[in-house]
Amino acid sequence: MRASGESERPAPGETFNHGPPTPPRQAASVILLRDGPDGGSGAAGARRQLEVLLVKRTPKARFMGGVWVFPGGAVDAQEGEGDAAHRVAAVRELSEEAAITLDSPDELVKFSRWITPAEVQIRFDTHFFLAVLAAGQEPRIDGEECVDLGWFTPAGALDAHRDGEIMLVFPTIKHLEQLGAFSSVESLMSYARGRDVQPVQPRVLVEGEVARIVLPGEPGY
C-alpha cells in the first residue's frame, strides 16, 4: 500500500480486516547505520553519506515475502514487556537476521513507533531503534529467513523501489523519506537522542477498488 492519494494492492501477506480490529503484536526493528562513501573515487576527504541496512525477506514467507525491510520481528513472550523487552527483541533480531552483535540494548536509540492500521488483519506495534555499525563487524544473512542484504542511502533505496529493483512497504518508505534529511550518522543520532517518540497509526481508506493510506493530520484521517 502506498501513501495518501496512491493506490496499490496490499503488500504480500496483508489482508483487509472487515471485523473487529486485531490486537497488534509487539515488535521491534533496528535501523542499522553507517557513513558510506559518496560513490566517488574514495580519495581522502571524499564526502560521506548516511547509509542504512536493508534485508530481503525470503519470497517463501507468507507475510511480507520478498520485501526489503529493516531487521526486526516480534517480541517473544520471555523477553518481558515495555521498553526493555523491545530493546532485547531488537538486539536479538539484529543478530539473527544480520549477524550484528550489540554490546548492550542501551546502545539503541529509539526513533519511532508505528502501529499497523486497524483495517489490516495482521497487525504489529513496532518500535524502531537506531544503531551504529561497530568497527570490525559486517552484516550477513542466514539465507533462509533473509536471502539478501544491502547498504543503501535513503534516496537510493527509494529510487530502487521506484524502478522496481526492490520492493518496499509503506512504513519503510516513510522512514526512508525521513532519514533522507540527514547527511551523516552523527547528525541523525544527535537529532534522535532525547526525542519524544509518539506512536503513529495510519488509516486505510477504501473507496471502491482503490485503497489509500492516510497519516494523522492528513485529509480524511
Overall description:
The protein has 221 residues and is an alpha+beta fold. It has one domain (25-37, 47-214): Nucleoside Triphosphate Pyrophosphohydrolase, CATH 3.90.79. 20% of the residues lie in helices and 29% in strands. The protein is built from four helices and ten strands; from the N terminus they run E-E-E-E-H-E-E-E-H-H-H-E-E-E. It has helices at residues 82-98, 154-162, 170-179, 185-192, and strands at 25-37, 48-57, 68-69, 72-74, 109-115, 124-132, 146-152, 199-200, 203-207, 210-214. The strands form two sheets. Strands 1, 2, 3, 4, 5, 6, 7 and 8 form an eight-stranded mixed sheet that branches. The protein has a two-stranded antiparallel ribbon with strand order 9-10. A hairpin with a 2-residue loop joins strand 9 (203-207) and strand 10. The relative contact order is 0.23.
Alpha carbon gap, first and last residue: 16 Å
Extract low-pLDDT stretches: 1-9, 39-43
- Structural class category: alpha+beta
The top level CATH class name: Alpha Beta
**What is the total tally of β strands?**
10
SSE run: EEEEHEEEHHHEEE
Determine the strand fraction and express it as a percent band. 25-35%
Distinct helical segment count: 4
Radius of gyration: 17 Å
The CATH superfamily is identified as: Nucleoside Triphosphate Pyrophosphohydrolase
Mean pLDDT: 88
| Coarse morphology | globular
Taking the sheet with the most strands, its summary is: 8 strands, mixed
Q: Based on the coordinates given, report the CATH architecture.
A: Alpha-Beta Complex
Kindly identify the CATH topology: Nucleoside Triphosphate Pyrophosphohydrolase
